[in-house]
Amino acid sequence: xxxxxxxxxxxxxxxxxxxxxxxxxxxxxxxxxxxxxxxxxxxxxxxxxxxxxxxxxxxxxxxxxxxxxxxxxxxxxxxxxxxxxxxxxxxxxxxxxxxxxxxxxxxxxxxxxxxxxxxxxxxxxxxxxxxxxxxxxxxxxxx
Length: 143
Fold this sequence. Notes:
This protein is mainly α. It has 4 helices and no strands. It is 84% helix and 0% strand.
């Protein structure tokens, strides 16, 4: 069995890592929002931002999924079952599933008038809202 102090440090590390990932998702969402506004306006497009959004998206998605599985592993090691904190587990599972879904959808976006853009945008907004809820739930566990 692992030392309680070490497990507490891992819990703090898990929370800190995922808070940083959530902030990265908000930053990424702001890039997506700028791209969407430029496209809807029909004016000059900043292709540097578009490239950055496309390049960083898969990295941030992988970080989000890694944070989820780190939490799953931590709770299994610490408590032996997944639903010690059911709300946190359920919201985290939704976030992970939506991250995977929006990643798959993003691969289908082709051209400026792709019908996949709006679902990608809406799911992205929902992910951000769930991250806010998840951080609130996580702080309730840590404090």
